[in-house]
Design a protein that fits this description.
Helix content: under 10%
Order of helices and strands: EEEEEEEEE
Number of helices: 0
Oligomer: single chain
Strand content: over 45%
CATH architecture: Sandwich
Shape: elongated
Radius of gyration: 16 Å
Structural class: mainly beta
CATH topology: Immunoglobulin-like
Distance between the termini: 33 Å
Strand order of the largest sheet: 3-9-8-5-6
Number of domains: 1
Number of strands: 9
CATH class: Mainly Beta
Largest sheet: 5 strands, mixed
């Protein structure tokens, strides 16, 4: 399995195998904690080869720099099927998060596990905003 995409974003959809992603970000800035995002998504696009067909379990966690979970883990069970005329297949997952609440500032990470094995991470920085600023990549 190869990770083609792992990101946190404002919105995403999977329409007939086409992954549509809007507003990928790597950080949130807020004047105080807890920081709450009304709505966002974690998206993945995973590529599986013919020798990886069958059932799998995806697990996504958000954890701080000490490895402490900042929200409940999200799990999805699915089965991979590769068409006979293709060497691999992509599987898209859109995990919608409502009222994501993060209680601490710092450098966090989103971790992707496949079948209980860590496959990759992306950073999520939650920073203290010092003053009102023009919208940017770190705005909440």
């Amino acid at each position: 399995m190869k990770i083609e995409m792992l990101a946190i974003c404002d919105a995403a959809t999977d329409y007939q195998g086409r992954l549509n992603v809007l507003g990928v970000f790597e950080g949130i800035a807020a004047p105080k904690t807890p920081v709450v995002r009304d709505r966002c998504c974690i998206v993945t696009r995973l590529r599986f080869a013919k020798n990886e067909v069958g059932p799998h379990q995806l697990k996504i966690s958000l954890r701080n720099s000490k490895g402490v979970q900042l929200m409940p883990e999200m799990k999805a069970n699915f089965s991979v099927k590769v068409p006979p005329n293709r060497p691999s297949v992509a599987v898209n997952m859109v995990l919608n998060l409502n009222k994501l609440k993060i209680d601490e500032f710092g450098n966090h990470e989103i971790a992707l596990f496949m079948d209980e094995s860590l496959q990759g991470t992306v950073p999520l920085t939650v920073a203290r905003a010092m003053k009102k600023q023009v919208r940017g990549t770190m705005d909440n």
